[in-house]
Design goal:
Oligomer: single chain
Helix content: 40-55%
Order of helices and strands: EEHEHEHEHEHEHEHEHHHHHHHHHH
Largest sheet: 9 strands, mixed
Bound molecules: NADPH dihydro-nicotinamide-adenine-dinucleotide phosphate, magnesium ion
Radius of gyration: 22 Å
Distance between the termini: 25 Å
Strand content: 5-15%
């Protein structure tokens, strides 16, 4: 069955006439949604805890900012853009008690609805607009007159207007300039977790890290190893985006192609690991492990962040990148894009 894809002509922004949209959080996604919707003519209020370092930043950008409960109380649509592990607690404390009757609840990832950490009452429409790109790209593309594609879903539709609101939201975000693909909370959550664990992050990151270590352990120069296992990756991924695996292969030498077919380290054992991880996503055990650790103050997560930020390629990476003149703009951009959240530059995958 072909996917359903919506574009600009399929949505009507008048859905938001006389309505208010609360954006909770002003991080990677939050700032992009608030600014894009505002610039599309939507009446936006940003909900933040008063201690948030982003309060002044959002105000400087001309946005109205209120404590979470107050922002929710006046909103017809509430988009929750807090880190997934904190959403349930904020929902119980500040969202649920203040939600107007019939106000719509929105998410950029299905995690909390799918695994039942948030259970909205039946009179609230519940929908998802999940950008397939990091927040600063969602903002940058909108400002450039383009858009980042989204996947969209409706979980609860008590009045029959949930899809109209969903598509209008996606349009105001600029996403329908690129397109919105119809999905479900279950499909988005399970495939998103699978992709980030096995391919986009857990897969690629481990391949890069291990490849660098095998080469430098064998005595090759770190600069050369970095080139071969990390730097060139982006160019191949660009080709893949343009024309799939075939274009990436077509552009490489026959030697590279033959080695790709015959000498890969990815084998059937890896497929079995992927299937095992998919089961743990589907049966909720990955989600439970993550949330239990977070609820306990994230001891395992913090130890892993510390351990992984010190893997060998990361300890020499900054020095190597600084030597590459053509890389300077990208490095500066990464620093800038992350400085407003006060985070260390980290690649955020949706
Ligand atoms: P961030 O970590 O970038 O943003 C966090 C924001 O939430 C900050 O403004 C922070 O403010 C606020 N916040 C954190 N804890 C609380 C709290 N207890 N009460 C009130 N505010 C709080 O989040 P992301 O933008 O990365 O993720 C948001 C959602 O978007 C998630 O569901 C994620 O899965 C989804 N998503 C993310 C993508 C991405 O590229 N990052 C892509 C697609 C979807 P403070 O200053 O107070 O800490
Ligand atoms: Mg994700």
């Amino acid at each position: 069955m072909a996917a359903t894809i919506w574009y600009e002509k399929d949505a009507d922004l008048s859905v938001f006439d006389g309505k208010k949209v609360a954006i909770l959080g002003y991080g990677s996604q939050g700032h992009a949604h608030a600014l894009n919707l505002r610039d599309s003519g939507v009446d936006v209020v940003v909900g933040l805890r008063p201690t948030s370092k982003s309060v002044e930043f959002a105000k400087e950008q001309g946005l109205e900012v209120k404590p979470v409960g107050e922002a929710v109380a006046e909103a017809d649509v509430v988009m929750i853009l807090l880190p997934d592990q904190y959403q349930a607690a904020v929902y119980k404390k500040d969202v649920e008690p203040n939600l107007k009757p019939g106000a719509a609840l929105a998410f950029a990832h299905g995690f909390n609805i799918h695994y039942g950490y948030i259970k909205p009452s039946e009179d609230h429409p519940v929908f998802m607009v999940a950008p397939k790109g990091p927040g600063h790209i969602v903002r940058r593309e909108y400002a450039a007159g383009r858009g980042v594609p989204v996947v969209v879903a409706v979980e609860q539709d008590p009045r029959g207007d949930a899809w109209d609101i969903t598509l209008a939201y996606a349009k105001a975000l600029g996403a329908l300039r690129a397109g919105a693909i119809k999905t479900t909370f279950t499909e988005e959550t399970e495939t998103d977790l699978f992709g980030e664990q096995n391919v986009l992050m857990g897969g690629v990151n481990k391949l890069v890290e291990m490849g660098f270590e095998v080469l430098t352990d064998a005595g090759y120069q770190p600069e050369i190893a970095y080139f071969e296992v990390c730097h060139e990756l982006k160019m191949l991924v660009d080709l893949m985006n343009e024309g799939g695996l075939n274009k990436a292969r077509w552009s490489c030498s026959d030697t590279a192609q033959y080695g790709d077919y015959t000498n890969t380290c990815i084998d059937e054992h890896v497929r079995e690991r992927m299937q095992y991880h998919l089961k743990r996503i589907q049966d909720g055990s990955f989600a439970k492990e993550f949330i239990d650790d977070q609820d306990a103050g994230a001891p395992k997560f913090k130890a892993l962040q510390e351990e992984y930020s010190n893997v060998r390629i990361e300890t020499v990476g900054p020095k190597l990148r600084a030597m590459f003149s053509w890389n300077k703009d990208a490095v500066k951009d990464a620093d800038e894009a992350n400085s407003f959240t006060g985070k260390i530059a980290r690649a955020q995958v949706q």
